[in-house]
Design a protein that fits this description.
Layout lengths: L15 H10 L5 H15 L7 E5 L6 H20 L8 E5 L10 H12 L15 E3 L5 E3 L5 H15 L3 E5 L13 H15 L3 E5 L11 H6 E5 L8 H16 L13 H8 L3 H17 L7 H5 L5 H18 L3 H10 L17 H15 L15
Parallel strand pairs: 1-6, 1-7, 2-5, 5-6
Antiparallel strand pairs: 3-4
Helix pairs in contact: 1-10, 2-3, 4-5, 8-10, 9-10
Length: 390
């Protein structure tokens, strides 16, 4: 049974940990989450688009991990009808790209995490990796020898992806993949993902902060194989975004498992300012404030609980600066489009003459015939000259 505040009433009789866990697990299918989820699923499922890599970028705290969970859920639901026909298949795998402690991104660790994600214990059809250093013991458990090199583990992963046939590989915190030691090219890391996606025919979905934009436009080939999606925040200059943000805040307000429902919507500007319009930041903020209220045995969420858990103005300004830089990088203006048209000779301006005009077809033919005549003489035959008659 639900109370007017939206949460099950029996939660009030549960422990503090259970009440906090309820709110931590609660998610809202808000408009931008629904829109971005639908677009990601569409890009993944469109086989004719031939996008081996799909990048989803957005601000820190916008809710990217929740987005991946939603995308994973939809892909699994779509694959369920065909799973009986293809035993051993895993619909989708989701991994996190772990930030390196120092230096370059650890590709071997990433390959191992993907292999473990593909090792579904409830599936009877086990993978024969056919690679040295990756094997199974007598009980069927996966054994990867410590000295196995990264290329060998990568080959095993490629074989596993081909065998399991997942719809997609979802990579959270993908901006960590751009970490590298000095002297290495950023393009090498993206080339690795692209080639794996091409070899296995499994699209890879990279989701991360605006730092992931460093992978964009590294080369023409990478741009052609990549599709990009922007998971944006709610912006105060758009009335529809303000309305959506208030609705989100009201929904969170009704699902705080407290005896008295707090009035958060009346202070929506403060919540917007300290969350920058990012639902993930807002949710984490309210979760920490709720933990304090439960610890104080408070009947509701007070302004003190809220204010003491808000980000500082300096933190907000820093994150806002990163957001604005990322949004500028993605923004395409009419001036950018006109410049592209002019570069292609499609603008209104009269194109300048070519610096070295190409010869006409007749001139080319005449030159060719003359050249052929000169080459028709036998070797050693002198050129014809006028000779005086003695």
């Amino acid at each position: 049974m639900q109370t007017s505040s939206g949460f099950p009433r029996e939660l009030l009789d549960q422990s503090k940990e259970q009440r906090l866990f309820y709110f931590e697990s609660f998610t809202i299918a808000h408009p931008k989450l629904r829109e971005t989820t639908a677009r990601a699923v569409q890009f993944i499922g469109n086989q004719q688009a031939k996008a081996s890599c799909i990048t989803i970028v957005g601000p820190t705290g916008v809710g990217k991990t929740t987005l991946l969970q939603k995308v994973e859920q939809v892909l699994i639901e779509q694959a369920l009808p065909n799973l009986k026909k293809t035993p051993g298949r895993i619909p989708v795998i989701r991994v996190e790209a772990i930030a390196p402690e120092s230096g370059s991104f650890n590709w071997k660790d990433y390959f191992l995490r993907c292999l473990l994600a593909l090792e579904e214990p409830l599936i009877d059809y086990k993978i024969d990796y056919k690679t040295r250093g990756v094997r199974r013991d007598s009980s069927g458990e996966l054994i990867i020898e410590p000295k196995t090199s990264s290329p060998i583990v990568r080959q095993a992963l490629e074989n596993a992806l081909i065998y399991r046939q997942p719809i997609a590989v979802l990579i959270d915190e993908a901006q960590h993949m751009q970490k590298m030691a000095s002297g290495r090219r950023l393009q090498d890391n993206m080339d690795c993902i692209k080639s794996m996606a091409n070899l296995t025919r499994v699209p890879h979905v990279l989701i991360g902060t605006y730092e992931l934009l460093a992978f964009h436009n590294l080369s023409g080939q990478l741009s052609r194989r990549n599709q990009s999606i922007h998971f944006s925040r709610y912006r105060a200059e758009y009335p529809e975004d303000v309305t959506a943000f208030k609705t989100i805040l009201n929904t969170f307000q009704r699902h705080l498992p407290l005896k008295e429902e707090p009035d958060l919507v009346s202070h929506w500007k403060n919540f917007y300012a300290r969350s920058l319009g990012c639902v993930g930041i807002l949710k984490d903020w309210l979760t920490r404030a709720l933990a304090d209220a439960l610890e104080d045995n408070s009947s509701t969420l007070t302004l003190q609980h809220i204010e003491q858990r808000a980000m500082s103005i300096a933190q907000c300004n820093r994150i806002l600066q990163e957001i604005e830089e990322g949004e500028r990088s993605l923004r395409e203006t009419q001036q950018d489009y006109e410049q592209l048209l002019n570069s292609l000779g499609l603008g209104d301006k009269i194109p300048a003459p070519l610096p070295n005009p190409l010869p006409s077809a007749d001139a080319v033919n005449a030159t060719t015939k003359s050249s052929n005549k000169r080459r028709s003489r036998k070797p050693g035959t002198p050129n014809p000259v006028r000779r005086k008659v003695k």
